[in-house]
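Researcher: For the annotation table, I need structure tokens for DUF2071 domain-containing protein. Please keep the output clean. Sequence:
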Amino acid sequence: MIWQRLCFMHWPVSAAELHKYLPPGLTLDTYHGQAYLGVVPFLMSGVAPRGLPTVSGLSTFTELNLRTYVIDAEGTAGVWFFSLDAAQPVAVRLARLGFHLPYFDAKMWSAQRGEVTEYASVRTHKGVTAGAFAAAYRPIGPKFESQEGSLEAWLTERYSLFSAAGDKIYKGPIWHRRWPLQRAEAEIRLNTLPDLISVKLEGEPHLLYGEKQVVRAGLIERVKS
């Protein structure tokens, strides 16, 4: 799959506030003691099982993530998703079934005006806390690769995802080259995604932009207790 026009929007939040929403077996990952909650809008394209062709109408769609960062008992660091909103109902159901990820149906819209990406989403999934998001963002400055040990690397260079089904924890590998990043600026007009976990965001977010990234995701496996 290809991730395009992505904006990493991260806010520092209370570690204790986030940790209570994690399942047993996962520990909140922090950067120098600080936890972060991320909102990540982007466009997905070229989505298909390895070795199979893309399918018109199913392989390109918008997606919006609410995420934080965790470590399992074996010391593997990765991403924990509180929600993944997507505008492709079939993809939502396949990801929920095959990866146990909290994918939700949403009505979404995105357009590009020069370097500016306009983005809006309203969650429509039945039985789930409402969530809406609207923003305009753009890259500023030259492209760069994050340095090992930096906050930028900690936020973006994540090569595992975690999910849960009942009391079972699962882990799946993610492969991609190091992110070609740019600093970003954004006008966030609406963001009620954190209402899902009753977290209030304060202050300005840390912003990074990624124009394009080719990504492969592997099958999930159960994490040992």
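Researcher: And a one-line annotation?
Model: The chain is about 10% helix and 50% strand.
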